[in-house]
Amino acid sequence: MEEYAREPCPWRIVDDCGGAFTMGAIGGGIFQAIKGFRNSPVGVNHRLRGSLTAIKTRAPQLGGSFAVWGGLFSMIDCSMVKMRGKEDPWNSITSGALTGAILASRNGPVAMVGSAAMGGILLALIEGAGILLTRFASTQFPNGMCSALQITVPQNVCNAFSEYKHSSTTVYGK
Q: Is S-adenosyl-L-methionine among the key words of this record (predicted)?
């Protein structure tokens, strides 16, 4: 699967941390806007002001929480890549479990185990869905696609796609 051809590890951490902050701030902003609107006194001005206040108060905090999760996840993922010497879904699954455990460490060992299980399961589901989508997409375009379309395409384009398809199936042992 070529989704792992990403930024090199030191920059991946910064990239994932920033992306997680953005996702948390935007998603949290939308959620807080609705919550602030609903919980404000009657009147359009009061509701809009309450919505804006909720966004300003909580969206940066949610973005920061997401950034901590994303940064810690990426640091563990990069450490796993360095230790194991390969990039595969097991790195992400393990990183999700360890991130969940570390972030829940202040709540005790029972919370750590529960959060580790949830983090690992969540990342396993995400990785599994990614694998299924990649396999489904690769069956849509067989190797002979360029010749079947009977269009003039430089041969290196067909070869590049063929190499991509073979590399995506060999990573997972099929």
A: no
